[in-house]
Amino acid sequence: MSNYPILPLRHLAPLALLGVLLAGCDSAAKPDDKAPPAQVRVETVQAQPLAITSELSGRILAPRTAEVRARVAGVLLKRVYREGSDVKQGDVLFLIDPAPFKADLDSARATLARAEATRYQARLQDQRYGELVTDKAVSRQEYDNAHAALLQADAEVAQAKAALDRARLSLGYATVTAPIAGRIGRALVTEGALVGQNESTPLATIQQLNPIHADVTQSTRELTALRRALRAGELSQVGEDQAKATLIQDDGSAYPLPGKLLFSDISVDPSTNQITLRSEFPNPDLDLLPGSYVRVRLEQAVQPRGISVPQRAILRDSAGVAKVMLVDQQAQVVAREVVLGNAQGDRWIVNEGLQPGDRVVIEGLQHIKAGDQVQVDPTADANPIVQHNGQ
């Protein structure tokens, strides 16, 4: 017979409940099944022609600028044009008092008439003496004097004609016209001012605004590296007449009308060690004004077999080293350092670190680390074709 006490049934119920709870705790302590691998989206790397672009800063310049000046001395009678308007070549801008120039013109005409009368008389005398010298009615010396007088009269007529032409020019200069077509600014003088006295007084400035130029500067170090890559065959040259230019506006957006590179300067600024590059842009609405600070993205070369990845695929460690996450054939994540080139839109050009066929993770980076097993999204293996013009 057992020596253990027999407990009543009312004491067995709490013990049974305690056993159930302990069993539940044991099952909760067991680890869950392994979580499924994270799903990522990848882009398969391809080598394709890529434009090598440089984003440079500079200023907007008018292709043609003309200072309207008073070319004769006189009192300004009237400003004909409206300030800030567009003018055509030859449009009348200012009127200078023409009265003294008309008087000079009349005087020059009278001087010419007198010179022509003198020449007429000298010609008649030369003809008479030419007949008489044959008959020896006058001496050879007298005939030579008459002929010299005729030559002198011809010179005086020529001089009088030149003075008449100058008087006509002066009278014409009293009406100041636009030397070029463009937009004219404010008047620098007012009616009643004496202009052109001992100097050609500036009256206004005309600037041609369509098309317009953008002058940017680039360091000789960058140009040297570009030329070295071209000589080594790593890049292909883009002709200046084919090089495209994109103007970046103040808000960071691209100017809607594309431009073109006109030329690169042949001299280096010794103070900055930079060279000037000029591009041209259409400006039909006159949105671009001279003196404005701008940035221009220039296509200077083409990398025949270039590699690029989306900017969101680039990670950086604490030292700032760029790297990407790759997915290998076993669906395992591998971290790889890369050397980046220029940015091209929303993508980075990769100079070193990637090969065609590599699968770069572009989405789901926040859920993975090197060594993880992942599941590649089968519905979207991003693989865009990037044209060599960067668009």
TrEMBL record:
Please provide, in alphabetical order, the Gene Ontology terms of the cellular component aspect for this entry: plasma membrane
List residues of the Multidrug resistance protein MdtA-like C-terminal permuted SH3 domain.
Answer: 307-366
- Gene Ontology MF terms in the entry: transmembrane transporter activity
Query: In this protein, which residues make up the domain named Multidrug resistance protein MdtA-like barrel-sandwich hybrid?
Result: 64-207
What keywords sit in the KW lines? Answer: Coiled coil, Signal, Transport
InterPro entries from the UniProt entry? MdtA-like_b-barrel, MdtA-like_BSH, MdtA-like_C, MdtA-like_HH, RND_pump_MFP
What's any GO biological process attached to this entry?
A: response to antibiotic
Which protein is depicted? Answer: Efflux transporter periplasmic adaptor subunit
Protein source organism: Pseudomonas putida (Arthrobacter siderocapsulatus)
